[in-house]
Specification:
Blueprint: E1 4-7, E2 14-15, H1 17-30, H2 38-44, H3 49-54, H4 66-80, E3 86-87, H5 91-100, E4 104-112, H6 113-123, E5 130-134, H7 147-156, E6 163-167, H8 170-179, E7 182-186, H9 193-199, E8 203-205, H10 210-215
Parallel strand pairs: 1-4, 1-6, 4-5, 6-7, 7-8
Antiparallel strand pairs: 2-3
Helix pairs in contact: 1-4
């Protein structure tokens, strides 16, 4: 049914929450801002790093030190994005089977492109050759705009009708809808299952291997 899978990264392939939380706490401590716990950070991820910082500091983008804080976060996270991050159980086995079945794969994330590229190189380079992060400076709008998904499909030589989008949040569901693609959501990510059910994807999967039943 599908020959291409476009994956979200955070909360879908990788559990990045602890490293993201540590980076948020780093800037909050450095600039003497109120501290957030991991559950609050979980609620704030999904719309890119800039939006995460807006939600993590007093007055958000109106804070006079916002750009300084934002750059400090990027510098810290780039150097520490893989300290506690791990692939979810069953992900490597899923990617191996998809690869052996000649299914084309890409990652599309709102995370900074440098971090996406580095994490893909560390964890998935044997299986995934196209990994796209936030790059609005190049005119590619971040999710839920479909631009980065269309860019990935073009690089893969795939059509949207042949592809399925796999993610873990309302941002992913909206991205798939805006791209005109089928969407599968995973329950092991950063959002509660009740929220996912309300988004009405074509399927909600509880284990990575469940995707194989949909693809094949």
């Amino acid at each position: 049914m599908y020959n291409t899978v476009v994956f979200d990264l955070d909360g879908t392939l990788l559990n990045t929450l602890e490293d993201l939380t540590d980076a948020v706490l780093y800037i909050q401590k450095k600039f003497d801002f109120p501290l957030h716990n991991i559950e609050l950070v979980r609620q704030h991820v999904g719309n890119g790093i800039r939006k995460l910082i807006i939600r993590s500091i007093p007055d958000g983008e109106d804070n006079p030190r916002f750009e300084e804080v934002y750059q400090e976060f990027l510098d810290y996270y780039q150097k520490n994005c893989q300290v506690k991050t791990t692939a979810y159980d069953g992900i490597m086995e899923l990617l191996k089977e998809l690869h052996e079945s000649n299914i084309k794969m890409a990652i599309v994330s709102n995370k900074a492109h440098g971090a996406v590229d580095e994490l893909n190189e560390i964890y998935f380079k044997d299986y995934i050759k196209v990994a796209i992060g936030e790059n609005e400076a190049a005119g590619i709008k971040k999710k839920p705009a479909p631009d980065s998904v269309f860019h990935a499909l073009k690089l893969l030589g795939s059509k949207k009708e042949e592809a399925v989008y796999v993610g873990d949040s309302e941002v992913d569901r909206a991205t798939a809808e805006n791209a005109g693609m089928d969407c599968v959501l995973c329950s092991w990510g950063f959002r509660e299952r009740e929220l996912l059910e309300g988004l009405k994807p074509i399927a909600i999967i509880d284990e990575p291997k469940d995707l194989l039943k949909i693809i094949k």
